[in-house]
Amino acid sequence: MNRFKGFALCFAMLALALTGCAIGNAEITDKNKVSQIQEGKTTKKEVQALLGEPDSVFRDNGEEIWTYNHAKTSAKAYIPIIGTMFKDKFTANNLTIKFDRRGIVVGIYNSKAQG
Fold it and tell me: Which of 23, 104, 94 lies closest to 63 in space, CA to CA?
């Protein structure tokens, strides 16, 4: 019985260690949600309902720019030697949406970086 508890504890710790870490708004990685945002049609309220609050808001000459970010790293990145063998160690997503003076989407810019 003691041996089983030790194995279970080791397994639980290993599973926890391999989960990785993610920060930011994961909604922007949902292609279905992002594809619902249409230039010339979608409003600020609709974007907020789909994606939630933006990470940052900028105003420029009456236009408004919302930025959403999401970053995820694999737990493999933190394991010596093994971390250098995998290419999916880090993924960063950025979604920038520009609204006109009426609050209608006039630009959608989506970028992804991996390292």
Answer: 104
Q: Which residues pair with 56 in a beta bridge?
A: 67
Q: What span, in angstroms and rounded, lies between the C-alpha atoms of 5 and 63?
A: 60
Picking from 70, 89, 88, 87, the residue whose alpha carbon sits closest to that of residue 78 is 89
As for how many domains the chain has, the answer is 1
pLDDT in tens, 55-98: 999 999 889 999 999 888 766 555 555 555 555 577 888 999 99
Read off the tokens for 13: 């710790």
Report field, pTM of the whole predicted structure over 0.90 = no
Residue 110: inside a domain: yes
Give me the domain span that covers residue 103: 20-114
Could you tell me which residue, 7 or 62, shows the higher pLDDT? 62
Contact 73, 20 (CB under 8 A): yes
Q: Which two tokens stand for residue 60?
A: 């420029």
- 68 contacts 24 by C-beta, under 8 angstroms: yes
Q: Which amino acid is at 110?
A: N
